[in-house]
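Appendix C: a fully annotated inverse folding record. The material below is reproduced so that readers can follow the format used throughout the book. The structure is listed first as tokens, followed by the designed sequence.
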């Protein structure tokens, strides 16, 4: 029997929160260590505070140069080879380049799932896919808008391959889903498409992994990232099919990579990675964005931290409990509060639109540590000050502390 507290510390250690932040400026080596723990970085278009793929690195390393992530994901040189590539993993994600073949099963599934969409798309435009690929080959890395212009976007189809704008965009997204295109780089947050052969090394691109082996390897990676988790926890990390996930877990237990365990208070059986460590204590602080892999599976978050968390972006404002884009606050291994954050870049202000303490916490200490972490975050985002609004039971004390 593993206690709930020990399981929590195991999960935190697996995600890198038992490690001290670097004493100096974080380097590419530090980024690689974070990636070896979390396995992937989720992408999201919301930019109210900071892009989702930058924040988990900050949560673990503290203030770092975002160019570290940009170079790892969207550039390549002999001195600094590309580390990451985009594809659908948990959701839209940055994954290690070497993991590209492990998602081939999903590419095939998308090709089958969206075959009717492709048929509709090309029914009156039989040359569209070939024209998009030829244009990307000539122009890439290139955005959908530039492709639409190059292929005559906006005009009715004319003889010789002039396509409707929305058809071009749909073709790009279909090709991305089935592995015919990838992201060469990004400009701002705009995806610039390119051919996989210009982004992914041939040795990786040509590796063939069957579906069962891919499920085993992805489940093993999920177990590294979790430290300890249920089969459903492990399955969710890469959104695997239940049957393949269950088979993979059983095989990894048989191989000795996973150990079946019972965790106090957990309804379902758990599995611990044999290399997972359980520190006696976890110290330190971190703000977590809604798409941090420690908390993105809300049921697991509630089970491990006794912390009910929902993203309220799509909830009408009068019905929101905590706010639009809320960051849980991790302190010494517990989720002790939450803040609704917005980066007001025009004013140079990190706005704390709401600040809330969890029941039973030492509010004086939480306030002091949260104020310090918000200041660190504002400096990292190159914002001049932190301003606290009036919402939440922690707001007044936090405003005074800041």
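Designed amino acids, in order:
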């Amino acid at each position: 029997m593993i206690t709930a507290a020990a399981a929590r510390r195991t999960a935190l250690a697996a995600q890198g929160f038992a490690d001290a932040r670097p004493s100096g400026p974080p380097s590419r080596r530090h980024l690689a260590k974070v990636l070896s723990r979390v396995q992937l970085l989720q992408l999201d278009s919301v930019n109210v505070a900071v892009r989702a793929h930058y924040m988990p690195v900050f949560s673990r390393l503290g203030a770092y140069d975002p160019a570290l992530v940009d170079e790892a994901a969207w550039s390549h040189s002999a001195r600094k080879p590309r580390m990451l590539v985009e594809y659908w993993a948990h959701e839209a994600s940055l994954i290690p380049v070497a993991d590209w073949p492990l998602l081939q099963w999903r590419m095939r599934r998308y090709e089958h799932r969206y075959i009717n969409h492709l048929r509709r798309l090309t029914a009156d435009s039989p040359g569209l896919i070939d024209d998009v690929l030829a244009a990307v080959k000539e122009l890439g890395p290139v955005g959908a808008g530039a492709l639409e212009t190059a292929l005559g976007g906006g005009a009715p189809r004319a003889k010789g391959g002039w396509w409707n704008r929305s058809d071009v965009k749909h073709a790009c997204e279909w090709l991305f889903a089935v592995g015919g295109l990838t992201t060469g780089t990004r400009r701002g947050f705009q995806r610039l498409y390119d051919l996989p052969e210009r982004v992914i090394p041939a040795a990786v691109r040509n590796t063939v992994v069957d579906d069962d082996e891919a499920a085993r390897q992805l489940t093993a990676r999920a177990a590294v990232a979790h430290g300890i988790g249920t089969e459903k926890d492990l399955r969710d990390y890469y959104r695997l099919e239940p049957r393949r996930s269950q088979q993979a877990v059983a095989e990894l237990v048989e191989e000795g990579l996973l150990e079946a365990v019972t965790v106090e208070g957990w309804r379902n059986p758990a599995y611990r990675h044999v290399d997972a460590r359980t520190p006696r204590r976890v110290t330190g602080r971190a703000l977590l964005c809604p798409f941090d892999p420690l908390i993105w599976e809300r049921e697991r978050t509630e089970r491990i931290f006794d912390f009910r968390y929902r993203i309220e972006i799509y909830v009408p404002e009068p019905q929101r409990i905590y706010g639009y884009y809320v960051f849980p606050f991790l302190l010494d291994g517990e989720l002790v509060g939450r803040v609704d954050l917005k980066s007001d870049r025009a004013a140079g202000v990190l706005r704390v639109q709401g600040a809330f303490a969890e029941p039973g916490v030492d509010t004086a200490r939480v306030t002091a540590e949260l104020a310090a972490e918000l200041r660190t975050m504002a400096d990292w985002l190159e914002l001049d000050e932190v301003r606290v609004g009036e919402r939440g039971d922690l707001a007044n004390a936090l405003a005074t502390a800041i």
